[in-house]
Design brief:
This protein has 130 residues and is mostly helical. 82% of the residues lie in helices and 0% in strands. Helix 2 packs across helix 3. It is elongated and about 90 Å long. The relative contact order is 0.03. This is YtxH domain-containing protein.
């Protein structure tokens, strides 16, 4: 029972709102112009049905091409995401191996850069000479 009151309330509100907006002169003029335009288009396409058919076919073709392009783009993006998912573990392994290699050869680098008798506290700060 409450559903019928709800639907009636919505319909009455829409009718009342529509009637109130028609009090404005600009709104009335706009509604009249739109109505005339639609009426003229209906008359035109009623006489020229082949053109209506052609226009509809063009719109269908346009939206089909948009859909096909969107589908193609979505597939491409999905493939790239999957490639990134596959590459990420490989990159992690490569970075880890590189880090281990540098850590293991730290002493070798030290001996090449700084002679043993002048060894600084850190490889980044040279020993001050007195």
């Amino acid at each position: 029972m409450s559903e019928s009151k709800f639907v009636k309330g919505i319909l009455y509100g829409a009718i009342l709102g529509g009637a109130l907006t028609m009090l404005d002169r600009k709104t009335r003029d706009s509604v009249m112009n739109q109505s005339r335009r639609v009426k003229n288009e209906i008359k035109y396409y009623n006489k020229n049905r082949d053109e209506l058919k052609q226009t509809i076919e063009q719109q269908v073709t346009k939206w089909q091409s948009v859909y096909n392009q969107f589908t193609s783009d979505a597939k491409y993006i999905s493939q790239k995401v999957n490639e990134v998912k596959e590459i990420t573990p490989q990159v992690k392994t490569l970075v880890s191996d590189t880090k281990d290699t540098f850590s293991q050869s730290k002493e070798e680098y030290k001996s090449i850069v700084v002679p043993e008798n002048e060894e600084p506290k850190s490889i980044y700060e040279p020993k001050l000479q007195s």
